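Q: Hi! First time asking for a complex rather than a single chain. Here are the components, and I think there are two in total. Is that enough to go on?
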Amino acid sequence: MPRFLTMIRIDEKNVPEGGPSPELQERMGALLEEITKAGVMLDTAGLRPTSEGARVTWDKGELSTTDGPFTETKEVVGGYSICQAKDMAEAVEWAKRFLSTHEDYWTITAEVREIEG
Amino acid sequence: MSSDEQPRQAIETVFRMESPRVIAGVARIVRDVGIAEELAQDALVAALEQWPEQGVPDNPGAWLMTAAKHRAIDLVRRRERYARKLAEVGRDLESAPPHTDEPADPDDIDDDLLRLVFTACHPVLSAEARVALTLRLLGGLTTAEIARAMLAPEPTVAQRIVRAKRTLATKGVAFEVPYGPDREDRLGSVLEVIYLIFNEGYAATAGDDWLRPALCEDALRLARVLAGLMPKESEVHGLAALLELQASRSAARTGPAGEPVLLADQSRGRWNRMLIRRGYAALAQAQAAAAGAGALGPYALQAAIAACHAHAHTYEETDWQQIAALYGLLAARTPSPVVELNRAVAVSRAEGPEAGLALVDALGAEPALEGYHLLPSVRGDLLARLGRSAEARAEFERAASLARNAREREMLLARAADC
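A: Yes, that's all I need. Here is the structure of the assembled complex.
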């Protein structure tokens, strides 16, 4: 059964003020518990803002480090999950359910990728 | 929900994900897993008819559950009317009281799922039937998938499942989680079924069929589900820990040509660290749950042994003293010649080949190990380490003649040639 990495992409500049509402956190918590109980969820976490992150680049033999925030990128990874699902369709269905816990004023994207090997 | 995809595929995916819960919820009403599965299928047909036109509902799982439950309640009412009519004509018919209450919270669904697990793994069924039924009802596998995974013809598996459902109905197996002294025995059967499913896939990793390793993942998922359903049972966590740790090695267990790679030669960089971490966490839960109840059970002990291997960054760093001690506990808890043989290997690593050989030789007359290729294989290994080459070669050749897996036979013949 393949494993999938789901990256939750957000636009840091347009995250609703105050972050996730208590209701959203509650719905999210309940869903994450459900996914875990279904034996699907292997690991998940949110990520600290890119202002606290760094990018290290290797470009034709040149190393460079850029500290966050990454202002030039519209969407950044705000969280991830690693799931074990039957197939891509199942992984996508769980991602849909995760996104659907959000209120209508959110704009977020879940990128679902199969882990090789 | 979106209209940007083929509804049929979405429906089938949702159905596969939800079917164990739907079957479990409906079985509580109709008290028959065979009928429950049919009613769940009816709900799927209804979804296939309605969703493409009306769109996939926001909560498709709840939709399927409600649709199936309405059918179940109708069925129970029809049965009651039938029973009343029979009674009117003077016949006495025992009929189960209807259970039409809707589950209010997720705990009810958990209870229903647990009942489904215990029913599918009921000892009234043969081990093969339990495995097939568990994969079908709880793993959401189709009959064709189970047949491929178990290397059995599809009609055979279909028959096995039909007969299993009929047996449960005719023997009047209650849809329940047993309490009291029964409970431990029955839980043992549930854990055994999951372990059998795992081993069916694990032992076959060196085979040709690429589908069988997927069986390990199915078993692992079932173990995780069970651990979520029975968080207080130490052995459930013990089994989950054992499977996580064993699965963590799968990528390293076979070489480029599909040949088995022994533990000593496995590239530990290919062990899956995340599964190892999950194994440690499950083992810690097993230990915590056992703290009140006394000693660790056999699955948790085997998990503890697997954890010792996972802790070692190289084969040489392995804490064989600890492993030998754990095998000692395991042998005391569940005495078996196979455990004793494994203990001999651990002792030989901890104290030297002579000590191991003494234990192996004590097993020589064990009828249960007659024809078991690992006994001469281990003996050959110990003799080789003692420099008794001619005897070692004879043992490896004997082991090769007993091995049933072609890859393993090749490896043993190669070892014989090296002596």
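A: The first strand of chain A starts at residue 3 and ends at 10. Let me know if you'd like any chain examined more closely.
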